Structures are given as C-alpha cells and as structure tokens.
Amino acid sequence: MLATLREVLPEKGRAVGAFDVVDLEWAEAILEGAETLGLPVILSVAPHLGGPPLRALAPGLRVLAEEARVPVALHLDHGENLREVVEALRFGFTSVMLDGSHLPLEENIHLTRLAVEVSQEPVAYTDPVEARRYLEETGVDALAVSIGTRHGLHKGPVRLNLPLLEELGQLPVPLVLHGASGLSPEEYRALVARGIRKINLYADLALEAASVLKKVEAEDYLSLMAAMKEGLKDLAMARMRLWWGS
Predict the structure, then answer these.
(1) Is 77 a catalytic residue?
(2) Looking at 20, 77, 141, 204, which residue is catalytic?
(3) What is the pTM of this model?
(4) DSSP state string for the chain
(5) What percent of the chain has pLDDT over 90?
(6) Which one of 67, 151, 227, 229 is at 20 to 30 Å from 106 when CA atoms are compared?
C-alpha cells in the first residue's frame, strides 16, 4: 500500500530501509523482501544515479507501491532543484528530499522552505547548532546528518562520530543516514540505537547486482534478471532485519 514517509518511519531504536532503485526489477526485488518480512519500506529514486527518467519510472513504481502488501513510501532522493521536487510530487511520490547541502546555510534554508510549501520532507546536513536552526526554520519531517559516512564505496575505515550522533539524537525529528553501504552490523546497530530511523542504501545493491550477473550461468535475459532480483531481495531482507531489529 502506498504510504507517506511519516507512516513508515519507526520509533527510535529501529530504522526503515530506503533503497535507491534504478529500474522496476530492482523495485520488485526490494518489495518481495519487504513483503516476506512484513516490514514497511521506502523505494527511492536518485536521478543522478542514472536509469530511466522519472516520468517513465514513476508510474510503474506507483503501481507496485499501491499493490504491495506492506506500507511503501516513494521517495525522491537528492533532488537538485524545485522542478524535480514538483515533478516527483506530480507523479505520486509521497516523500521528497531537496539537497541544498552544497549551499550556504541561509540559501539552503530559503530553498528548503520553498520546497516544504509544496511537499513535506526535504533534509539537511549537520553541525548541531545549524541543524537545530534549520529544523526550526524549515519544519522538515526528517533530517539527514553527516557523521562520518559518505556516498559511494568506502575506501579505508569509516570513522563514525557517535558522540555527535548522540547530540543530534536529542533533536525532535527522525534522523536519516546517507552513505550507508559497507558498514558492519555492529556499526548499523550503534547508529540505530542513537537515533537513525531511515537508512538509504545504493552502492551495496549495485555491487550485489553486478556480482550476481558475473557469477550466474544463464542463457537468456529473463533468467539473468531473475537471479539478480533474488540476490537483491536477499540483501535487502538481511538489511531490513538488521535495521528493524527483527
């Protein structure tokens, strides 16, 4: 069933998975895993990752979400401008992120406030004082925090700033983690325990898809896609179990 971000965000101590998908096969694999576990899930689309344009992908995602047996939020990830936000909302997305993290704080707040007027979820990045001001002046539903992770594949050890997360966890808003690929189960548990309630994942999914396609012995496209979907489903289920604490 199609749901809003607020409807799928859990209480503190658990985190819902937000999986960036690049086609309907990926989305089907994630949903099969979520339905098997009986857990809510977020299907995200990040235009900068490539794949079909949103106007082509969104209708199929909307159908899959509406027909799913678990709550499913459709999320625009890292929207670059208000046009993308409005487009996603028009196509039926129930959550949007306008990424103004590259802008000075004043511009970020102004742009996000405009986005909040037409939607309900853009997020921002850290510094506790600026984060509180950003939250108070924009009224966002969730806040993405920068505590040591980064997008893409991590090269070398990740130095998570857990004391900073403890402080940010006192803010009256669900916290979001980007750049979540490559972390250990213990690191995920530590993050969830300190207030992370939405975890975005892409790189690990892309690696798994590539790995399966290299290993599987199949003679036709549909068999290859079936194997890839099974691999993505298994990975998504493992992460959802871990993040949800089940």
Answers:
(1) yes
(2) 77
(3) 0.69
(4) -B--HHHH---TT--EEEEE-SSHHHHHHHHHHHHHHT--EEEEE-GGG-SS-HHHHHHHHHHHHHH-SS-EEEEEEEE-SHHHHHHHHHTT-SEEEE--TTS-HHHHHHHHHHHHHH-S-------HHHHHHHHHHH--S-EE--SS--SS---S-----HHHHHHHTTSSS-EEE---TT--HHHHHHHHHTTEEEEEE-HHHHHHHHHHHHH---SSHHHHHHHHHHHHHHHHHHHHHHHHT-
(5) 43
(6) 151
